Amino acid sequence: MNTIIRIDMAQLKVTIENSPQDSQLLGGRGLSARILNAEVPAITHPLSHENKLVVAPGLLAGTMAPSFGRISFGAKSPLTKTVKESNAGGTVAQKLDRLGIKAIIIQGMPKENQTYIVYIDSKGAQIIKAPDLKGKMNYDLVTTLQNKYGKEIGVISIGPAGEAKMAASTIAITDQDGRPSRHAARGGLGAVMGSKGIKAIVINAKDTKAIEPIQKELFKETVKDLIETLKQDKGSQSFSKFGTPNGIKFLSQLGSMPSWNYHGGPVKGIENIYGETISEVNKSRGGRMHGCMPGCIVQCSIVFHGEDGQHLTSALEYETLAMLGTNLGITNLDAVAQMDRMCDEIGVDTIEVGSAIAQLMEAEVIEFGDDQKVIGMLKELREGSTMGKIVGQGTAFTAQFLGLDRVPVSKGQAFPAHDPRACKAVGVTYCASPMGADHTAGIDYRDSLSNEGQVKRSRDAQILNATIDSVGYCYLALPAKGQVMYEVLVKLLNARYGNNIKAEDVMNIGINTIKDELAFNHSAGWADVQNRLPGFMETEKLPPNDVVFDVQQEEIDAIFKDLG
Asked: Which residues fall within 8 angstroms of residue 158, CB to CB, at 6 or more apart?
């Protein structure tokens, strides 16, 4: 993996560059942060020609090691106005790595109002006009591309929301079934891709093979040990049976799962969306569990079938069931699954849009619990009505339009489905992470109602997650003792590249990534004093434990002081 493909949309030109010698241990999130710092003015408008979209597989993707196939996207975010990395599973990262591509950098904006695709194979890359693809929904788009280029391609795409440059838009990635079901959803990076005039990137890795590590036996033994660890890990096994909805019963009883626009309290019929219920319903209809990427042994992705027994949506996840479900007072499983499919088609973040719709309910534009009105609003978003466009710009924008001041966002990004009052380490992450309100940046549920020790827990989780985002590992495959991954990564990276690095070097991947991201944000005008949660989190008691977010702000402000 030693080349960088630079796509200049202003000149409609492709350049192939050798990656720098000192970038061997830079991949995924870490590589995109480094490139953005070097090449993008931090004060630029996110939808300007100066912003760049970086696409980068992790450091181990092409080896086909289990759960190492996540792909990272990085840019200045239209939603947060800060640095943003968003990643997803699927098949694309493995294909890019097998083609020897370390990153794709997309820059500039086309002079003509045209729709383009980028086609990449073993011969290189080309920019192709594709006016017939304009406005297509993600599923139809991918089918069209597969019919033209073959079923085995990997596709990166945006829906109509990305073309319309909506701040809640996503970038979709095809899974093992060839469906655009995996989404780099947070931060509105689909709008950045749309601003470059690119509807899709097609990756054809036909006839390429998995990358062989330099130290084959060490690699093989380490992978074997990791698989055995995951097979014995209770959390991983529960994900394999029920996916991420497995945690709904516990999290709703704790109060962490949001309801009624983060007011909290029970939601009638919540048992309809418990992991066990979804599993029973789905099996009766012919649905199944699968891995979104080749080689995944956790296989936590729910391939959900509708009442007609046909595929409805894939990767029906906890965050979607919360933000389009309980947080809106909705527990109709099929209705939420339909909403999930609509969001995948349009290309919008279920977290951001779900929270934006919750603001409509807060303002009594829509009644809580009215699933058909929510489906109607998603249709408006798809069709581009005025209110649909407002919701498509995200939670903070929608709340501002409605004149609301109780808004569950951090750095302009909606809270995911983990209430900071009931999981205080994630509240610290929402405050302090360069990513804003993003649970995947650092989550830890140990002693979650206490305010003691949560800053350190958040800090450790953020460093670990920045590391695994750089190597392309799925955080849902983390063993309960996540810190063991540093030793696993040492062995795998040494085996692939023939290095002699230590655990400290691997941890420094995460540390340096966060430092680069913080540097970008500070240059963009973000000050540490702004690392705050909305005031209602400190005053409104969350049922059933009547807790508030009470971690000392002085501790939060000092979270990264020792990084240098």
From this structure: 138, 169, 170, 171, 172, 190, 193, 194, 198, 199, 200, 347
Question: Whose structure tokens read 């470059």?
Answer: 196
> Which residues have CB under 8 Å from 469's CB, separation 6+?
28, 29, 30, 58, 70, 72, 85, 87, 440, 513
Q: What does the domain layout of the chain look like in residue ranges?
A: 3-203
Rounded Cα gap, residues 17 and 58, in angstroms = 18
Q: What is the chain's pLDDT, residue by residue, as a tens digit (564 residues)?
A: 589 999 999 999 999 999 987 888 999 999 999 999 999 999 999 999 999 999 999 999 999 899 999 999 999 999 999 999 999 999 999 999 999 999 999 999 999 999 999 999 999 999 999 999 999 999 999 999 999 999 999 999 999 999 999 999 999 999 999 999 999 999 999 999 999 999 999 999 999 999 999 999 999 999 999 999 988 888 888 888 999 999 999 999 999 999 999 999 999 999 999 999 999 999 999 999 999 998 888 899 999 999 999 999 998 999 999 999 999 999 999 999 999 999 999 999 999 999 999 999 999 999 999 999 999 999 999 999 999 999 999 999 999 999 999 999 999 999 999 999 999 999 999 999 999 999 999 999 999 999 999 999 999 999 999 999 999 999 898 988 778 999 999 999 999 999 999 999 999 999 999 999 999 999 999 998 889 999 999 999 999 999 999 999 999 999 999 886
- What fold does the segment set 3-203 form as a domain? Aldehyde Ferredoxin Oxidoreductase;  A, domain 1 (3.60.9)
Q: Could you tell me the CA-to-CA distances from 437 to 386, 413, 479 in Å, in that order?
A: 26, 6, 24
Helix (H, G, I), strand (E, B) or coil at 76: strand
SS3 290: strand
Q: Name every residue whose Cβ is closer than 8 Å to that of residue 442 and which is 6 or more positions away in sequence.
A: 425, 426, 428, 429, 433, 458, 459, 460, 461, 462, 464, 465
Q: Following DSSP, what letter does each residue of 435-493 receive, concatenated?
A: T-S-GGG----TTTT--TTHHHHHHHHHHHHHHHHHHT--GGG--SSGGGHHHHHHHHH
